[in-house]
Amino acid sequence: MKILFSPSESKSENCTEKPFNKDSFIFKELFDFRMQALNSFYEYIKNTSIKNLKEFFGIKDEKEIEKFIQNLHNQPTKKAIELYNGVSYEYLDFDTLDNKAKDYIYKNTLIFSNLFGVVRADNLLPFYKFKQGAKLPNFPLEKFYKQHFSNVLDEFLKEETIIDLRAGYYDKFYIPNKQFTTYKFIKNGKIVSHFAKAYRGILLRILAQNNIQDNNTLLSKLPTNLRLKEIKYIDLKEEILLEIID
Q1: Which of 6, 86, 205, 240 is geometrically suited to a Cys-Cys bond with 10, CB 3.0 to 4.6 A?
Q2: For the CA atoms of 44, 46, 117, 36, what is the dihedral angle to 10 degrees?
């Protein structure tokens, strides 16, 4: 079982581990590609205007910019699953899981960083800022990572059951070449987005707490306010619609 998961724009600044190196990441053979992307990012933020940086980072206060333009190679790090702290991660509530559930997440969760590419939950990342959808001039990160990482991911996942809990945006980085399962959440007949972030975190928590190895078991463990509505098959994708019940 492998779970594909989104990052979040919100991150913890409390990083205390040593700076990253090649051994900090899954797929060590692809480290140079990560650094190529990171160097392109650093060259841009080091040489562009404050106005462009405010737009790129999605912030209004110029005083905030300084902490986002550090050379990330030299910064302290944190495990990826603990670095990100947006809505999905709040509902995952990783710190309150027991050690067995934490180990499940470390081993089985792949997070698709906009900047660093796909990382495993226990990989070390520094505090950084990258607004979803932000573009580096002449360096389309999503295409770059899709081109250089897809084959390795395909090989890594070929014997695994795959549950894709990412937001649809991250299809730009990778789409599995074998059968995989996604989840959508509906309320009052409409697909929801903000609620979806919360429920993706909840589903990951359920997977970890129960050491789940197949999708049918996950469906049997749904919280009482989620109900199976429909299952669709679109090429290799099994799309499960869950209804949120008030």
Answers
A1: 86
A2: 80
